[in-house]
Write the C-alpha cells for this entry.
Amino acid sequence: MAGITSITPSPEVARHWMKKYRTLIAASTSTLIATAVSHPIDTVKMQMQTDNKPFTLAVSNMYKAGGFREFYKGSVTLVRTVGFSVYQKAKYRFSSAIGKVTGMEEPLVTVNRPGSTPTPATLLCFGAAGALSGCLSTFIACPFELMKNTAQNSRLMAEKNPTRRNNTVGHHYEGKGTIKTAREIIKQRGIFGLWSGLRLHMVRDTIGTSVYFMTYESLKQLLVKYQGESSPTPPGAVAMAGGACGVISWIITYHFDYVKNNYQRNLLEAAKGQTVAVPKINYADRTQLRGLTVTIFRSSLTNAVLFSCFELFKKKINNLPDPDGVD
C-alpha cells in the first residue's frame, strides 16, 4: 500500500497538470461525449455518399449487415483533440502578432471586452488560426479518417462487384475494425497508402476549419453582446454558435468532402500501381450533395454538444484553486 500511495499525485499536483493541459483535457473529454452522440449519423452519411442510397435505406442496410455495432465503426477522437489544441495555441500567437504589426489592441482583448463586435482583426485572427490548425492536423487526420471511412464502407467495397467478390481488392477490408483496416491498407498500398487523398483532405480541412472557428468565435461574440451577457461563454450562446459553425463550414466544403471520400474509396479498390482519376467537383450534380441534410443535422448536434462541454470543462478547470508549491 505504501508503494501505491507514494505514486499517487497530491491534489495540488493534479490541479497543476489539469490547469496546464486544460485545453487537451476539455477537448478530449468533450470529443468523446460528442462522438458517442453523433457518430452513428456520420456513418450513415458516409454510406449515403458512397452508395447513393437514401437515408432510410442506408440505415436499414447497415442494421441488417451488423446491428448497432455497424453504426460505430471507425470511431476516433484523437484528431479533433489535436485540432483544438493547435487552434488554441495558434490564436494567441496570431493575436499577439496582429497587435504588434498594427499597433492596435490585440484581437483577443477586443473579443473579451463586454459589448464588443467582430472586427477585421478578430476575423483574421480566428480564420488564420483555424486554417493553420486544419492544415497541420491533416497529417494526422488523413490516415485516421481514411481508416474510419474504409471501416464504414468495407461492406460496400466488397459488394461492388459481387461476381468477383473473392478477387476484388475491396474484399480485403470487409469486416475489419480500425486497426486491422490500417494494417490491410499498408499491406495493399504500403505505408504511404494511409495518406491517400492527402491534398484533397488538406484543402477541405484548411478551408473548413478556418470557417469553423471564425464562425464560432464571431457568432458567440455577437450573441453575448445582444443577449447582454457578462460572461464571454454563456451556455446558450456557446451551443448556438457551436451548432451554426459546423453547419456553415460543411455547406462550404461538402463538395470537397464528397470528392475526397470517393477518390479514397476508388483508390483503395484499385490494384496497387493502377491510376485512379480524381473525381471532379460539379456544383450542378445533385448526387454530390447526397447526405448533406444528414450532415447538417449531425454537425449542428455534434458541435452544440462539443463546444458546450468544452467551454464548461475548461471553465471548471480554470475555477479550481491554484496549486500551492508546484512548479
